[in-house]
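Two proteins, back to back. First:
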Amino acid sequence: MTTFDANGEWTIRLLDAADADAYQAIRVAAAIHDPASIHADAAEIAALDSEAIQRQISPGDAQRVLGAFIAGELVGVAALRRNVLARTRHRATVQGVFTRPECRGRGVARGLMQAVLDEAAKLPGLASLELAVHAENAPAKALYQAFGFRRVGLIPGAVMLDGRCLDEVQMQRPLVFSSAAAAPAGVPGDDDYALVEATPDVDTYRRLRAESGLSPKTEEAARRGLAGTLFAVLLRHGGETVGMGRLIGDGGGFYQVVDIAVLPAHQGRGLGKRIMAAIRGHIDRELPVSAYISLIADGDARHLYAQFGFEPTAPRSVGMALFKR
């Protein structure tokens, strides 16, 4: 299996024993650059002998390790490791997703995640994918949400780094698709619309904003902004994405609801309310007590937001904004 990116910039394939040295080197780099996301430190990884590394990457029924290459150099990795016990072999863990910092922003991580799903679809009886992600790693969480992973738990103090206890978010994705190209399962409503917990891609995001009457965003602004998504939902109808909503913030004290958008042809059907209900559910489940959640209400939209507990801040405080032109 070899996957090519649309521009021919990178390729993705299964790693084997011959890739042991390159894999060990990139795992050491991961431990150095993203220490909060790697349980082993760089010295522990570097100390492993070649046979141990080969065992970690050799493809088999219980594991598939994928590598992304640019000009023959290994620049990104992701592993799929299946449970081997009879009662849990329907589950597999996605581990070690890492792209070298100088190669980020080229779609490598997304390509690796799609390749992981492709491999998972080939394993008979596999029903669930799971992963753990550093709780403060917003870009990684947004990536996993875009591929249908949902938060299912939190392990406080899962990693000890330089004397600090760091939390890990547990995420899970049911394998309900019948082929690698199928979209993540949606949450059906009483009609033909479905909500999916996922972050829009750049093109979809810009289209929805423009066509629903929100201010346009440049491609660069959209790319940077979407990487910081904490939670997002997409509204789909007949294979088309017709609405969205996002929650952004610092992950602790302050958050903002943004990008509540429904295409004009689908407005007036309570779909904005459905999007807000999903966001409010995430707020209730995941945000800490004392969190401050704000939004900007345009016109009559304030009536929608009031249904979900949002209140005007005036005259106590007045909203102010700066729009860079």
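And the second protein:
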Amino acid sequence: MSKMRNLFPEIEPFDSGKLKVSEIHDIYYEQSGNSDGNPVLYVHGGPGGGTSARDRRYFDPEAYRIILFDQRGAGKSTPPAELRENTTWDLVEDMERLRKHLGIEKWVVFGGSWGSTLSLVYAETYPDHVKALVLRGIFTLTRRELMWFYEDGVNHLFPDLWEEFVALIPQGERGDLVSAYYRRLTSDDDEKRKMAAKAWSKIELATSCLLVDEELLAKAEGDLWTQQFARIETHYFVHGGWFYSDDQILQDVGKIRHIPATIIQGRYDVTCPMEAAWLLHKKWPEADFHVIPDAGHSAKEPGILHQLMEATDKYKDL
């Protein structure tokens, strides 16, 4: 491998605002980089994770018009952690509303983890408006993927963390932990919601890197972010993403096989195991496919970050 690449320097937005997308929701968006550059949309994870200043730095600011947005209920979007009118299809339409609002004909779409899910569904819905896709840590929101993380998979690798995770849930409810957590996260009891949000967030943050990142893990102590993250995630998971079939994303790949794409996957990704990325690769052999041999899930892993930077450079002149 060539010299490992790092993020571009810090940059401030030249524009930011709120877009009203429903009677309930206003979504935050911002633009940075070159206002006349190649438009690229950063799609954050979770669902419910929100964006940060770091997310602007995957893209050459001289070449790209860099657009970030917070999905419904996440980040700076309002109201925070709101579950009403908050589905995958609402988010897909929000992305399309934002594209039209900004006067963009086609853009590059970049997403990791849940961001890869939403990017794929958006592209499969509006393929004519996508120039290229950069996808990392593939998650297709199948029952099999959810069972791995929340029923029988992660517990074999992290029994210590798993013990903490299930401690909040009585034995009789442990047959469906996602639903058990969802009940607590939608409870009228504020303290119960906070405890559940922190426990839910902690196990995901702890397992997202090849080695536990203590700085990242500290996010699990906050009240607002954990409520946004945990409430919205469980809301999406108990509803199966509102997909028409469990494997909708893979079934619809034929709609986007003509779009240039790069798929980047950590070999030891515990959060979103490589099987989903492999199945996507098999359905979409035209896409560049990179397996990082010494990486987990996080975009901060050096090998994953390097390939992300290479991919955004590849598509900057489209």
